[in-house]
Amino acid sequence: MSITDDTPVDTRITPALHPGVVSKIDGYGEDTKAVLGQVETAFSTAYEGIRSVWNAREKVEADTSKTADARLLQLDGFAQKKLEHAARTFDSTSATVKKQIAFLEGALAEPIEEKASGSVAAEIRSHAKALTTDKLHKFVNDAIEGGDHATVAAVLGGPAYLSGLTPDLQKTYLKRWNQQQRPDLAKRLHVLQQAQAMLDRDATKIFKAMEDAVGGSSAKANEVRKAQVAADKATSA
């Protein structure tokens, strides 16, 4: 059973951090959920950490043997540990996903191997260069969509100017060709790019959700902690 199947919804926590959000990524399925497992784990770590603080809060607040400030310090200390763990998990996951994206982008930008003979490839490039801009784009697009390796390799395998293309446009067409030839890599890249955007967007929500769970601001807890240190220092002299 995956994380998204067995993580109960807690209405005290923002739905944006529930690991089930990962399954909403376009392209998520049996063939991609494995690569997104680390992202689900990051969200699950944050979600369960926040839930544990909410649950601890009920018990801490029931301890009337301590003052309100003492209870806040106790709960905030626990929350800070959970927050640090969640933030570290998000950071490490984000770093890993970025490396995977870079690898896939590199794989989809690899040069294409020419299949036609040198003279035929030269003729294809000459034909392409003689076309108007609109017809050239149609020529290349039709070759890519038709899986015409010889034509695509001739146009995209040599220097861009030989076919009348700009270097940037040639790179764009090459990526399209590689995506078409390796749809598995293209799909993995697609879901990982969405996952990265999700990690970037929702990482800051962990801090607000944790503060809500504590029920008092970290600033207030820090003030109490400083006052306690000052008092201990004064009485230890």
What does this molecule look like?
This protein has helices at residues 3-6, 37-61, 68-107, 118-130, 133-145, 149-157, 167-181, 183-202, 205-214, 218-235. With 237 residues, it is mainly alpha-helical. The chain folds into two domains: 18-108 and 191-225, Topoisomerase I, Chain A, domain 4 (Orthogonal Bundle), CATH 1.10.132; 118-181, no CATH class. The mean pLDDT is 89.
Strands, helices and their partners?
Layout: H1 3-6, H2 37-61, H3 68-107, H4 118-130, H5 133-145, H6 149-157, H7 167-181, H8 183-202, H9 205-214, H10 218-235
Largest sheet, described in full?
none
Shape: elongated
Pattern of helices and strands: HHHHHHHHHH
Tally of discrete structural domains: 2
What is the mean predicted local confidence, pLDDT? 89
Distance between the termini: 59 Å
Low-confidence stretches: none
Assess the beta-strand content as a share of residues.
under 5%
Q: Report the radius of gyration as a whole number of Å.
A: 28 Å
CATH topology tier name of the largest domain: Topoisomerase I, Chain A, domain 4
Shape-level CATH architecture of the largest domain: Orthogonal Bundle
Please tally the helical runs, counting DSSP H or I stretches of 4 or more residues. Answer: 10
- Considering DSSP H and I runs of 4 or more, what fraction of the residues is helical? over 70%
* Strand runs, count: 0
Alpha-beta classification: mainly alpha
Just give the CATH class of the largest domain: Mainly Alpha
